[in-house]
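#random but structural
TW: two for the price of one
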Amino acid sequence: MLIEVKVPALSESVTEATLVSWHKKKGERVERGENLIDIETDKVVMELPAPQTGILTEILKEDGATVAGEEIIARIDTSGKQTKTASPDTAAEKAKTADDKPEKKVETQSTSSADKTTSHGTSGLLPAAKHLAAEHHLGADEIQTIQGTGRDGRIVKQDILDYVDNKNKAEGDQQPADSSFGSVNTLSGGEAAQQADTSSPATTERPEKRVPMTRLRMRIAERLVQSQSTAAILTTFNEVNMQAVLDLRALYKEKFEKEHGVKLGLMSFFVKATVAALKKYPIINASVDGNDIIYHEYFDIGIAVGSPRGLVVPILRDADKLSFAEIETRIADLASRAQEGKITLEELTGGTFSITNGGVFGSMLSTPIINPPQSAILGIHATKQRPVAENGQVVIRPMNYFALSYDHRIIDGREAVLSLAAIKEALEYPPSPLFER
């Protein structure tokens, strides 16, 4: 029985996806639940498991293909039998012919090898590589000489670029040296040096590498440009003395980890302080919809996480109802799965406010961009020992600069400044994480 392998249903905001890499070849056996291929949308990279155990008899869409939700991309034969192809029959006929006519054996083998090479040179190209080969007018004979570095020896775009680059270098080395270089001998020393200096930039290698954006990166770019072009973004700053938080964390971290099985980090403090401020100033947690302001009476906090494929912002649902331990556990899980590319579309959808922590990379100050349709975002930076004035004296304290970017269309400076001050107050006088939710 043939089973169709379909692209999963995509969310309303995602219309198409890209097939990244097949993990199984045509004709191979697959087990139910085994990952067949990685599929990239503009929000996340997801795995497509095999719906049934059987033989992967057809691959209808190759790596790099653009697909829609519910589109059929392969078929699996659940009977577990290999479907007949032309190759075994043809090979048997050739073997029989070779036995009957020994004198033509070498010629037959040579033809078969040539056919195989030609097939690799055409079908072995990924779509982007094939398009690039056409742009550079590469013939089938040239393509056959290219060693593919992609999966199963497929020729990828970079292979074409490397081949063209080496070809151009070889042609440059074979240029006759009778015109410009020959005339140097007739110039004076100063003239020769001047000509050498003039020509040197043209002969100096300046390597470049052109790589297409992933769907995720294109979506990030689109949303950031949309945010800056549609919202009236303004940023306000404040400095936070992190001494109380650091002291409390040092005091309870061992006991906290033993009780909850997770380390007590700083993000749980940041989330708790943020929720406290949003409750005081609900407009910071609101969003714009046309001429309406939507006040969200729940607190879904987006936590910006860096991943190998780009920035993603998974959501902590109902963050006001989570304990310190629950916040730390969920953030650790989301960060881990973001690195593995296993964040789901649902986990990236929604959010009423976001937090981005550039401090983990050493950032001292930044002006974060709002994640639409939200109206504000909190930027946290590196905590550093800095001189500050306390009671008329200069002392050293662990200080952190906080930045709140907000949409001035609905948020006035008063609410923005006061909400950031509320975050500052909550962090400088924090509750015990062992007794407070």
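TW: number two ↓
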Amino acid sequence: MKHYEYQVCTVDLLGRVRFVNSQEQGCFPCRQEWEYLQAAGADGWELVCVAPSDVWRLLYLRRETN
């Protein structure tokens, strides 16, 4: 059976990743969404869902664990 770990990323209206798993990202300016996804993909994360809203966009990522 496969096991996964997950990340939930909160993206603001300007396309900046502001939170990952409810922890504020301390870098200012924040990383742009596409930069974050490129780096996460290189670390084995895959985007599995995007949930838009009026203020935020949530990105759900997962990667397989051992």
